[in-house]
Amino acid sequence: MGDESKTIEQLISELNELAESFKTKPMFEGLFQFAPDAIVVVNRGGDIVQINKQAEKMFGYSTDEVFGKPVEILCTRTLQKAACGAAQ
Q: Could you tell me how far CA 21 lies from the centroid of its own chain?
């Protein structure tokens, strides 16, 4: 039978393994860092674990500055810039 006989848990496990393999590949890192769009990766708790170069430009933070911080800090910084710009 093929994939029809696999359980959801098995499929999720395989997808997680595949995702982990992409994390270790230089190609993934290059695609991530040089994507034309901002990408922010957060963990289940909502803390930032990685951002790419476009996100650094957009939000004005380096990866080191936001690592482990709640993703909401990016929203706060963006809203502050917008409010300051509108007030001028």
A: 16
